Amino acid sequence: MRRFPGMTAMLGLLDVMSYALIQPTPAMVIMSLLLSLGPSATSARGLGVPSQVRIDADGPSLVLNGAGIRRVMASDVYVAALYLPNKTRSGKRILQDDLPSRLYVRLLRDVSARQLDSSINDAFADTSTAGEQLQLDERFRNFKAILETSPEISMGTEIAMDYLPEWGTAVYVNGNQKGRIPGFDFRAALLRIWIGDRCSDARLKYALLGGS
Prior knowledge:
Layout: H1 26-32, E1 52-54, E2 61-72, E3 75-84, H2 91-96, E4 101-107, E5 111-112, H3 113-127, H4 130-147, E6 152-153, E7 158-164, E8 168-173, E9 176-181, H5 184-195, H6 202-208
Antiparallel strand pairs: 1-2, 2-3, 3-4, 4-7, 5-6, 7-8, 8-9
Helix pairs in contact: 3-5
């Protein structure tokens, strides 16, 4: 399956970033990329995420659909939260409906660009078809260019990916907008990594879809 060459830095925040965070040796880093090492997620209670957010000052108000913690080998990696106009337990519906959304990530560990380099390529390959990858390649390159100025992503960094049908996906780092990528298909590709049929962490998916 085709890979996205050159994706680095913040793209690794997309689900699989955690596989490269806590390995003490290079061999373990390679082995851990995109392998299921007993990850788990918790409910939204006590995660420090708001129950409601607004996209832009005049944008729509969104409610918390679900939130969880990505864990690898009993180590907390990041908090993820999904916001939608209305709550739903259907991942398929979320991916199909062209509606506003926010995907929020707060890092609980430091992450280096080198650690994220190869894992993100595999993430998109595992959750997208070859045709989808070809169609999205340029936009993912643009997405990388928006955020690659942050070679080291430190603990506490907050990333928000806000989608509006008329504008596309705006990417915020610690509250500052870094850029915008057009297309509903791009938004769907991002969310598939967490809530698609082939996502790597079923427990986190369950939490983002409102499970407890």
